[in-house]
Design brief:
There is one protein chain. 25% of the residues lie in helices and 38% in strands. With 140 residues, it is α+β, with helices and mostly antiparallel strands. The protein has a single domain, classed as Sandwich (Immunoglobulin-like). The longest helix is centred in the N-terminal third of the chain and has 22 residues.
Length: 140
């Protein structure tokens, strides 16, 4: 490996480690289940990044402090795209999909079965494009 590639690989590895480390501080690790509290504020998820263990079932408690309705959709890019172009007026029956009316609190549960990244998005008109999104890093 050339020195240039080695340095590039080291920078990428350090960046990934920093992202994971800074995300971990917001969570407590649990082997099988945990609760994560998310606030919707100014059309953003706070926090917007999480780290969980593969196999964990996470209960999300979502508080919408905005004067407008939002939703929280967990899934890969295909799920996000389907919701971005879809016409479902509300969510709640599917794990990882929940509508949260203005000023209200809602919950959903999601099991992270594979390591990788699971995306979070709100697909109320224009919200995902505006930047109302996040990610869950699922580690072994």
């Amino acid at each position: 490996m050339t020195r240039r590639r080695f340095v590039l690989a080291a920078v990428v590895a350090a960046s990934l480690a920093a992202v994971v480390f800074t995300s971990v501080r917001a969570l407590t690790w649990a082997a099988s289940s945990q609760t994560i509290e998310v606030t919707m504020h100014h059309s953003r998820f706070e926090p917007s990044r999480f780290v969980v263990r593969r196999g964990a079932t996470v209960r999300f408690v979502i508080t919408n402090t905005d004067p407008i309705d939002h939703e929280l959709i967990l899934g890969d890019e295909g799920v996000q795209q389907r919701h971005e172009t879809g016409t479902e007026p509300s969510h709640g029956a599917v794990p990882g999909e929940v509508s949260v009316p203005a000023g209200m609190v809602a919950e959903t549960t999601y099991t992270f079965s594979r390591a990788g990244v699971v995306l979070i998005g709100c697909h109320a008109p224009g919200h995902y494009t505006y930047g109302m999104r996040g990610a869950v890093v699922v580690v072994y």
